[in-house]
Amino acid sequence: MINRNYSKLEKNYLFTEVARRCDEFVAANPGKRVIKLGVGDVTRPLAPVTADAIINAMEELKHAETFRGYGPEVGYAFSREAVSRYYASRGIAVDADEVTVGDGIGEDIANIVDLFDIHETKMLVQNPVYPLYKATSIISGFEIEYLKCSKENNFTPAPPSDSTADGKGLVVFLCSPNNPTGAAFTRDQLREWVEFANRTNAVILYDNAYERYITDNRCPHSIYEIEGARSCAIEFNSLSKTAGFTCVRMGYNVIPKELERDGMQLLTIWKQRQTTKYNGAPYMTQRGLEVALSEEGLRESDKNIDYYRRNVKLITDILDSKGIYYTGGVNSPYIWFECPNGMKSWEFFDHLLNRFNVVGTPGVGFGTEGEGYFRLTSFGSYEDTAEAAERLKEL
Ligand code: PLP
Question: CA–CA separation, 322 vs 221, rounded Å?
Answer without folding.
Answer: 31
